[in-house]
Specification:
The chain is an alpha/beta fold. The chain has helices at 77-83, 121-130, 174-181, 196-209, 242-245; strands at residues 4-15, 20-26, 39-42, 54-57, 60-62, 67-73, 90-97, 109-114, 136-141, 158-163, 170-171, 189-193, 212-216, 232-235, 238-241, 248-250. It has a 7-stranded antiparallel sheet. A 7-stranded mixed sheet has the order 11-10-9-8-12-13-16, with helices on one face. Strands 14-15 form a two-stranded antiparallel ribbon.
Length: 266
Amino acid sequence: MKKFIQDFLILQNSKLNAQHFVLELQAPETLPCIEAGQFAEVLVPGNPDVFLRRPFSIHDVDRRKNIIKLYIKIVGKGTASLASSQPGNSLNIIYPLGKGFTLPSHNQVLVVGGGCGIAPLLLLCHQLADVGHQPDIVLGGRTALDLAICDSFAAYGKVHLITEDGSVGEQGLATQHSLLLALPFSYKTIFACGPTPMLKAVDELAARQGADCQVSLENTMACGIGACLCCVVKTTTGNRCVCTDGPVFDTRELAGWYQPIVKCDL
Ligand code: FES
């Protein structure tokens, strides 16, 4: 799939809370096809300490207006700089990168997201709706702050919220809640993105129930184009780059359960 390097116009910077914000960015020309799960590498302007681009899942797309959205949590210098992005300015972006989710032909779908792993799942639900599917959706976080974006999902399916501190939805872990949903389990495909323990638990659930499971991995990335080997993961067909061969993998491709080969500290 062809990649583009373009200056996007910042239309809006919506602060959800002290930790999370959504950037609404307009492309200079017609958007290419974008699969849910693909990501963008964003050049962070105005901060000489941040020279590497930062990878973000594409959170949603408005094709009529050539707009993409990025849901971002402030975790370091790069994301803190982007949090002060001003409408009217531009951001240089390489996109769409990686391989996204493969949509099923059936409607028995469970979507599970935890923490920042929620980011690619709104576009996934959007694209499932475009083909007539209505998934069950489980979104988990440590606190309500992690789920500030959850209202956007309500248009696409039945949403179940769970937080570790019980500040919104049920109290517990997203994996426990998905296990509750499994009674009776009627899903043929599970899509998931979030912390590794959550992905492992969801994969185990899928294996027990004979369902397909696609996970979007959140390995550390630097170049985003398969050049630095920062993101390599072991698979049944050898070591592969999460940034180019993923970030979405069918869990049957992942060896044992996945171990990053290289741990970069960026
Ligand atoms: Fe550089 Fe994947 S991020 S090879």
